[in-house]
Every structure is written in structure tokens, then in C-alpha cells.
Specification:
The complex is a heterodimer. In chain A, about 35% of the residues lie in helices and about 10% in strands. Chain A is of the alpha/beta class. Chain B is built from 4 helices and 9 strands, in the order βββαβββββααβα. The chains are: A alpha/beta, B alpha+beta. Chains A and B meet through helix 15 of A and loops of B.
């Protein structure tokens, strides 16, 4: 099934583009700007179309099948979002246009900011960050800036639970701060005693804490108010990782729970494409105390330039802003899609999203937990984490990775594996609200069938996938011998 | 699970062994097995100074990246540069060629306070529960 790369089907002189006749005098490029070391592929239009059509057919996405990738919220991306983002009034805008001429686009951004403020319970939202991890970095930089602005410069310790997304410690380190890991209790939540002790120990150096709620086990952090209180009591701020916001929509607001700053993932919760179909977008919401530190520009109504019944939307930099984190205004096309999604659903619809996300995850959990071990057997939120295949199967050396690979043969995208780190052989499953009962049952049936196969003939699983475009990849070799781009053979270069 | 009877062990699954007044350190056989194939090891600089239990480096497998913690405090006198090109040594020989660092201990008695091989074996047994 292996197909050549576009470089490998290249033949000198073939061309897929026809340029119109010159209507200006022909001018040669300056000699010193010409280079012949770029191995640009030369193919005909027909070869080009077949090559990329074939690749697109090998691809697997939410439009082809079930994609229960935990923590990623791979929900259906409504097609009306795409239609709206392609309206010529949006696509023909230029970022250097005068504000007077883009009032419609600024209105959309302003309204989306307000929607996100209301949904998250925050005073102000900036749409700048390009994706979740960048939103997180922006939030952490805001927390640091907040302390420094107050002259509280000794603070450089951030608490991160041992169940956290890897981006949390990464954002902290990138901001030049120190990570202190907070252990989980036996219910899968933050160990409050350990947190209190850490607060006392790092009292004067505490920047704050990064918390995901529901956490990466898919469990609601029941002590979230106590956690926020103890961190606040020691002068710290609470950062909310909004990756798992989906099940809270219309039900609970992170701002009300005690968070000071939070990033949203428009490409998860608000149905814009990601995982190859992006780009993402990671707006940041802030409490009144932190709003002045948000990245900018933010869209505001300028009262001086507004007329009665006709507000004037203007770009504005918060007073103590950490600055721009993205060129221009962020990923505007993604804003249009998220805006459309929120408008289409309305408050009742968004609440139903949260409820169905929780219902679907719990239904699937109940179908699987009799066969696959479930370490934290509680009502879950939008996802749940299994501890790999049953013990007898693991003893026959069939692991989570083998189950994941075999699922591909059944036509499903594998769940997230080996995360969170606090569960051995973790299988993290998030069905999302847009899957129907039949799909959930078919997936559960495949998961149970795989265990039956493993008991019968473990080698089927060790060899899987058998039906995918490529067989089992050597991930260890790929990580040890990094070859990051295609390298031409010596004589072809 | 393989053990080195000469070494002392920590709850972070690290070992330390006294060699010529210095402590050679690495991760245990149990740790390498849990991590699976190690693909990258990040080690400190010679001359760096750490307290006992401080993170001194990172070990990365296809499954996860984990911090490395010093079993005893002191100054780094050598690091295993072989691991840069051959991280698989950690899997193949965790108590030998897969060693990570040598420390000149600031407190020579610190190592003896850690678990013996037998104590570590029952610690792992309890943890697996």
C-alpha cells in the first residue's frame, strides 16, 4: 500500500500550472537570486490530483468515522460553519483595512468575546491566541505580570496536578517559572492536604495553580471551591485549563467556581475543525483583576465614535497587556465558525451539548467497565479512563497499544493512550455529544470483541493493524533516529 | 524484576551505589520496564549541584517523559554521555551501562538511609498491590 512521495514521482519538465501570457515586458530574475538547490517536485496536473486525492482517501477524520480521542473533543463540525466562514464579506477582508471599513467583522469579534465571557463567567475575553497551548502560555504570562505589577517579584512557583495535560508544566517552564507537582487522591481529584501543605511551604513564592476541571480522568473536581480558596488565601491565582469545558456548557461557569483566568478551545468545545483541519483558536478569559493584563488587541465599543443606535467597534490594548501573541487579530476564520455554532445552538442548545456529552460518555463507560478495568468508578463527565485490557489479557502481553492498533482494523480511530500518566496502560475515551447510540454500541462491541480475540490468539493484536494503509509502525526507532524531512538520494539532488 | 544487591533505592525508582567515595545513580529495572523503550535521556552538566530528591534530568520513552531525581545530594562529577546516542542502554542494563550520573555526596551518610534491595522489592510489591 506504500505510495511514493510527490518528490519521488517528479520528472524534469513536467508542470501542473499554466500561466497566462505575459502582458508586461519580460524581465529576468537577477542572477544572484537564482538557486538550483531546491528539489521542487515537477509533476503534471493529473499526477498531482491523483496524488493528493489518494492521500485524502487514506486519511481518517470526524467526517469518515468515530473519533473518541480523549481530551480532544472530536465532535462533528457543522457544515454551516464552513459556509459562513467562506462568505465573501469575510474572506475578502484585509487585516490592514481601516477600522471604519471592517465594522461587521469587529462586531462579530465583539459579540463572540461577549458570548465567551458569559459562557465562562469572566469579565473580559481576548481572542488573540492561536490555539490552546498558546492561550495557556498567555494566561500564565498574565499571572506572572499581575504579581510583578504589584511589586510581588519573588513569586515564581506554579502548582500543577500530576494528572495535568503536559502543556501545563510546559507553559510554566516557558514562562521561566518552577513547577511543583501536586499529587491526586484516591478518588482521582487533587489531594487537598498535599495542596495545603505545598501552599504553606511555598507561600511567598506561589504564583498560582493550573487546574483542569473536569480533570483528565474525566471527573469533576468536587473540591474545586476549596482548592481555589486555599490557593487564593496564599496569594496565588487559579488558572483554568479549558480543554475540558464541553461538559460544563450552560451548567457551570469556571469564573463562578473561582478561576481567575481560563483558555477556551474554539476547535474543541465550539466545533471548529482541528487535528489537520485547523487552525485552532485559544481565547483567554480573565476576571476583573486580571483583565488589564490580557493579550491584545481586544474589540471594544468606542463611545466617542459611536452614534445613537450605531456603536463603533474599535481595537484596544489593555493597560498592562502582555502584548500581542499573534499577528493581527488571531484566527478570524475560526471566530466566524465558533460564532455560527453558538448562534445556531443558543443557550438551551449549548446546555444540551454539555448534557449529551456527559450522557454519551457514561453510557459507553457502562458498556465497557465490566470487561475493561475502570480505576475510578464514578459518574464521569465528558470522558473516562480505563486501565488497559483486563489483567489476564495483559498477562498474555497484550497492552493498551495493541488494543488501540486493533481498533483501526474495526474502522475506529483509537482513543488517547498512555495519558493521563497516573493510570497505567491508560485508554482515555471521549465520545462527544454528536455520536448516536448505535455508533457507541458498535464501538463498545468492537472493544469487547478485541478482548475475545486477545484471549483466543494474542498475536492478532500484536500484528495489528492488518487493514490500515500502513502496518504497525516502529515508534521507538522513529523517536530514536529523527529524520524530519524527505532526503533526496545523492544522485537525484 | 532485577535488583542490584549493592545498590540503595528510592521511592522514585532510582538507585545509587557507592563507588570510590562517589555515588553512581540510575533508574531501576522496574522503572525501565514501566517506561518501556527509552528514546531520550537529558542529563545535567558536570559541576551542577543538587539536593537529595531534586530533579536532575529527564528520561523519555514512547509512552511518557519523566523527571529523574537524585537519590543523594551533592555535585555531579560525571554523566553517562553514551546515553545520548544509545538511550536503549537504560533498558538493556539499568544497573550497569545504563547508569546516568556520578555524584560526589555532600553527606556521605545519606545513601545508607535509602531502601536496601530487599526493602525496595517489597515497596514495589506493595505499590503494585
Amino acid at each position: 500500500m506504500s505510495r511514493p512521495l510527490i518528490f519521488e514521482i517528479s520528472r524534469p519538465g513536467r508542470c501542473a500550472a499554466s500561466l497566462p501570457d505575459l502582458d508586461v515586458p519580460r524581465t529576468e530574475l537577477p542572477e544572484e537570486l537564482l538557486r538550483d538547490d531546491l528539489a521542487l517536485p515537477e509533476v503534471s496536473e493529473g499526477d498531482l490530483v491523483r496524488h493528493y486525492t489518494h492521500l485524502s482517501q487514506m486519511n481518517y477524520g470526524v467526517d469518515t468515522g468515530f473519533y473518541p480521542l480523549g481530551s480532544c473533543t472530536m465532535k462533528h463540525n457543522p457544515k454551516i460553519n464552513e459556509a459562513m466562514a467562506r462568505l465573501p464579506g469575510f474572506t475578502n477582508l484585509h487585516p490592514y483595512q481601516d477600522q471604519e471599513t471592517v465594522q461587521g467583522a469587529l462586531f462579530l469579534m465583539h459579540t463572540l468575546q461577549a458570548f465567551l465571557e458569559e459562557i465562562g463567567g469572566f469579565a473580559t475575553v481576548s481572542l488573540q491566541p492561536a490555539a490552546g497551548a498558546q492561550g495557556e502560555l498567555a494566561g500564565v504570562l498574565m499571572m506572572r505580570a499581575y504579581h510583578q505589577e504589584r511589586g510581588d517579584t519573588a513569586r515564581n512557583v506554579m502548582f500543577v496536578p500530576d494528572s495535568a495535560h503536559g502543556t501545563n508544566p510546559a507553559s510554566t517552564s516557558m514562562s521561566g517559572m518552577e513547577v511543583v507537582e501536586i499529587p491526586s487522591n484516591q478518588h482521582g481529584g487533587v489531594d487537598l492536604d498535599a495542596l495545603t501543605a505545598a501552599c504553606q511551604q511555598h507561600h511567598e513564592r506561589l504564583v498560582g495553580m493550573m487546574l483542569t476541571n473536569p480533570n483528565t480522568l474525566g471527573l469533576f473536581e468536587r473540591q474545586v471551591e476549596e482548592i481555589c480558596a486555599v490557593v487564593h488565601e496564599h496569594g496565588g491565582l487559579m488558572y483554568g485549563d479549558g480543554a475540558n469545558l464541553n461538559p460544563l456548557l450552560g451548567i457551570a461557569r469556571p469564573g463562578d467556581l473561582g478561576f481567575d483566568v481560563l483558555h477556551y478551545n474554539l476547535h474543541k468545545t465550539f466545533s471548529t475543525p482541528h487535528g489537520g483541519g485547523g487552525p485552532g483558536s485559544g481565547p483567554v478569559g480573565a476576571s476583573p483583576a486580571l483583565a488589564d493584563f490580557l493579550p491584545g488587541p481586544i474589540v471594544k465599543v468606542d463611545p466617542d465614535r459611536s452614534e445613537e443606535d450605531l456603536p463603533f467597534y474599535a481595537l484596544w490594548m489593555p493597560t498592562h497587556t502582555i502584548g500581542r501573541v499573534k499577528t493581527f487579530y488571531g484566527h478570524f476564520g475560526v471566530f466566524v465558525k465558533a460564532y455560527t455554532y453558538i448562534r445556531m445552538l443558543g443557550p438551551e442548545g449549548l446546555r444540551r451539548v454539555g448534557e449529551y456529552a456527559v450522557l454519551n460518555a457514561n453510557y459507553l463507560k457502562e458498556l465497557l467497565k465490566g470487561t475493561y478495568p475502570l480505576p475510578h468508578d464514578r459518574v464521569c463527565m465528558h470522558e473516562f479512563v480505563l486501565a488497559g485490557p483486563p489483567k489476564d489479557v495483559q498477562e498474555a502481553d497484550v497492552r493498551t497499544m495493541d488494543v488501540a492498533k486493533r481498533l483501526m482494523d474495526y474502522g475506529f480511530h483509537p482513543p488517547t493512550v498512555y495519558f493521563p500518566l497516573i493510570v497505567d496502560e491508560a485508554l482515555m475515551i471521549e465520545p462527544t455529544e454528536t455520536e448516536n447510540k448505535e455508533t457507541l454500541e458498535a464501538f463498545a462491541e468492537a472493544m469487547l470483541q478485541i478482548v475475545a480475540e486477545a484471549r483466543d490468539d494474542p498475536d492478532i493484536l500484536h500484528d495489528a493493524p492488518l487493514q490500515a494503509p500502513v502496518r504497525r509502525l516502529d515508534e521507538v526507532r522513529a523517536a530514536r533516529d529523527l529524520i524530519l524531512r524527505w532526503q533526496p538520494e545523492e544522485n537525484e539532488a | 524484576m532485577k535488583l542490584d544487591p549493592e545498590a540503595r533505592y528510592t521511592e522514585h525508582h532510582e538507585w545509587g551505589r557507592l563507588v570510590d567515595d562517589e555515588v553512581v545513580c540510575g533508574i531501576t529495572d522496574h522503572a525501565q520496564e514501566t517506561l518501556s523503550d527509552v528514546v531520550y535521556v537529558e542529563l545535567p552538566m558536570v559541576g551542577d549541584v543538587f539536593d537529595a530528591g531534586e530533579p536532575y534530568g529527564v528520561v523519555e520513552s514512547v509512552k511518557a517523559a519523566s523527571d529523574l531525581y537524585t537519590p543523594v545530594g551533592g555535585e555531579i562529577t560525571a554523566v553517562n554521555e553514551e546515553l545520548e546516542s544509545a538511550p536503549e542502554l537504560v533498558n538493556q542494563d539499568p544497573y550497569g551501562d545504563g547508569w546516568m550520573i556520578r555524584i560526589e555526596p555532600s553527606d556521605p551518610d545519606e545513601l545508607a538511609e535509602l531502601m536496601t534491595a530487599a526493602e525496595y522489592e517489597s515497596f514495589v510489591g506493595e505499590e503494585e498491590g
